[in-house]
Specification:
Blueprint: H1 2-31, E1 40-42, E2 67-69
Antiparallel strand pairs: 1-2
């Protein structure tokens, strides 16, 4: 009887650990979803400090072409 209870407890702990690891991976994937390939653009003159833009274009302050930040 003790072995059966011990086996059940081990099974429950294993199941809990597996679910927790899977949930952590899903949260990590959701946080980084779409961020791997998203380009960020910035004025090469840095006249706006570290301000970045999500689309290419021209700097609204000096008119220079925004460059992709790598």
């Amino acid at each position: 009887m003790k072995q059966l209870i011990l086996l059940g407890a081990i099974a429950m702990i294993s199941l809990f650990a597996a679910c927790r690891d899977n949930n952590s991976q899903q949260q990590h994937d959701q946080m980084h979803e779409g961020h791997d390939h998203a380009a960020v653009y910035q004025c090469p003159m840095k006249d706006e400090g570290d301000k970045t833009y999500d689309q290419p274009g021209n700097c609204p302050k000096c008119g220079m072409e925004l460059k992709e930040v790598k």
